[in-house]
Design a protein that fits this description.
By secondary structure, the protein is an alpha+beta fold. The protein contains 2 helices and 7 strands; from the N terminus they run H-E-E-E-H-E-E-E-E. A hairpin with an 8-residue loop joins strand 4 and strand 5.
């Protein structure tokens, strides 16, 4: 069953032109990841006290040899996520529907420096307010 992070990555691909597994990496970079790509990873969050809603934090890190490309990719993700919320991720096999009630950007694209191979890194962080019919996500 696809996990929530993977399903959100699929949805982000539909609005940004990124391709999961190449220009959008999920969870971690792979040895085969391209020089220019974006990484999505869950970074934490505090659940509501009820059992039907969670706030989940996601970080998107763009990297590229060109600082302009890295910033452009970070802005593409930011612009897509900033405009969306109140959407439903369709159910995956053996999974429930997931409603994204709202997406709150926590930061504008922030320069992180360079990685060990000289690629420029930018980061944006978001709080996803999620709910699911019939129980916890």
């Amino acid at each position: 069953m696809p996990d929530r992070q993977s399903r959100i990555a699929d949805w982000v691909c539909t609005g940004t032109g990124l391709v999961k597994g190449t220009t959008l990496q999920v969870g971690r970079y792979l040895e085969t990841s391209p020089e220019r790509c974006v990484l999505i990873r869950e970074t934490g969050g505090v659940p509501y006290m009820t059992q039907i809603k969670d706030d989940v934090m996601y970080q998107f890190i763009s990297r590229a040899i060109s600082p302009a490309d890295s910033l452009a990719d970070s802005r593409t993700v930011y612009n897509f996520l900033y405009k969306n919320g109140l959407i439903t991720l369709p159910p995956a096999p053996a999974a429930e529907e997931v409603w994204i009630d709202a997406i709150e950007p926590v930061s504008l694209p922030q320069y992180l420096g360079e990685d060990d191979k000289g690629r420029t890194l930018y980061s944006t962080n978001y709080k996803f307010m999620l709910s699911m019919k019939g129980g916890k996500i």
